[in-house]
Amino acid sequence: MLFKNKNSSNINDDQLALIEYAQARIKSKKKLFYHFSFFIVGSITFLLANLVFDYKSDLALLEYQWSYWICSLWLIIFIFHLFNVYVTNKFIGKKWEKEQLKKLIELQQIRISELKAELEKEARIIAESELYSNKSPKSTVTLIAAASENNVIGKDNKLIWHLSDDLKHFKDLTKGHFVIMGRKTFESMPKALPNRTNIVITRKLDYQAKNAIVVNSLEQALQHAKGDTQPFIIGGGEIYKLAIENADRIELTRVHTSIEGDAFFPEINPVRWKEVSSEKRFKDDKNEYDFTFYRYNKNK
After folding, report:
1. Is the dihedral of CA 277, 283, 287, 288 positive or negative?
2. With 0-12 CB in 10 A as exposed, 13-18 as middle and 19+ as buried, what is 11?
3. Rounded CA gap, 297 and 251, in Å?
4. Cα separation of 169 and 70, whole Å?
5. H-type helices in 203-266, by residue range?
6. What are the sequence ranges of the domains in the chain?
């Protein structure tokens, strides 16, 4: 099989030329054999025809000259053909074919070795790149929350509204990612969030949380989540305040109502943050308030 790429076009051309040349020489040998066979049969036929149709008793040579002239001219043509095959164009025998095949195999082996070396080099570069990416990935630390017009996010460690579309929005965004939260937020849930890696921040050194990683600071939490391209910080109020300076993005559901509560989302400074998208939703049987999905990116 011939390899095709921009670096091996010259080798392929040489190989193709050798193969075509070998095929042409084999054909020329066959033609020479056929020519010889026709020459013998034809000469005998002409001579016999001359004898049969122009027979004379004295058998003088000149009286049969038309057949001799044809045979002589044909013999000259055959000798030229023979010379052309064996001398002008060197005849390809079994030995020559084996030598050329050996050369082709050697060229292919050299090219295969070069390709293997190139592939191994590329594999090393990719492996090193992936290793580096795993060590220091570019993460988009994201705060995700639902807050009222007066920035209330909860009361008595409980949700204060039911917004079905917001819950689905939260699930779709955070699925497969790390979710970082405070102890109280974790304890307000019936269990660790499925299909996500839960990290709980607490000052309690002996705290244990089922199906969650327990850390004692935001820095430790972000260190655990460094392999994630977009770790999410999901509350509560104190964790949001600590994390907003380190965050790169805010996914905020603004609930269009003012309500009393004891947990708050920090003010979004328009100098530090830029609104990049918004999508308004209206109250219905599954959502008890009008609300808008906002996305903010931190200004560079």
Report:
1. positive
2. middle
3. 9
4. 99
5. 218-224, 237-243
6. 9-133, 142-298
Distance (Å, whole) CA 39 – CA 32: 10
Measure the CA–CA gap between 217 and 161, rounded to whole angstroms: 29
Orientation angle between helical segments 65-83 and 9-53, nearest 10 degrees: 170
Whether 163 contacts 253, CB under 8 Å: yes
Task: Output the furthest CA–CA distance in the chain (Å, rounded).
Answer: 143
Phi-psi group of 207: left, alpha or beta (phi > 0 → left; psi -120 to 50 → alpha; rest → beta): beta
Residue 274 pairs with which residues in a beta bridge? 297
Written as six digits, the tokens of 138 are 């570019």
Taking the model in full, what pTM does it have? 0.55
List the structure tokens of 176: 């497969």
Per-residue pLDDT of 161-204, as tens digits, reads 999 999 999 999 999 999 999 999 999 999 999 999 999 999 99
Q: Domain 142-298: give its CATH architecture.
A: 3-Layer(aba) Sandwich (3.40)
Q: How many CB atoms lie within 10 A of CB 252?
A: 22
